[in-house]
Amino acid sequence: MTEGYEDTYPQKRKGKFPTMLRNATLGWSDTHIAEVAGYSRSLISRWKNGVRNPSLQAFEDVLNSCGYELVMRKKNGR
Hints:
The protein is built from 4 helices and 2 strands, in the order E-H-H-H-E-H. By secondary structure, it is mainly α. Strands 1-2 form a two-stranded antiparallel ribbon. Helix 2 crosses helix 3 and helix 2 packs across helix 4 (56-65). The radius of gyration is 13 Å and the shape is globular. Residues 7-11 have low confidence and may be disordered.
């Protein structure tokens, strides 16, 4: 598997993951995100459009590059 790739989808997917990535990178061009995070511009675009899903590490890399931190915590009641 290529670094930064999770799954390949034959068509666009809509869902929370691409929306979260688009919101976290609001105002940043795909080119700028790619330069800062160390991934290709086309790959960033595919992630943001839901064509591919980034690996958890790649998602964290992009978030960190945009000044965010990925935090995992246990849900209440579980």
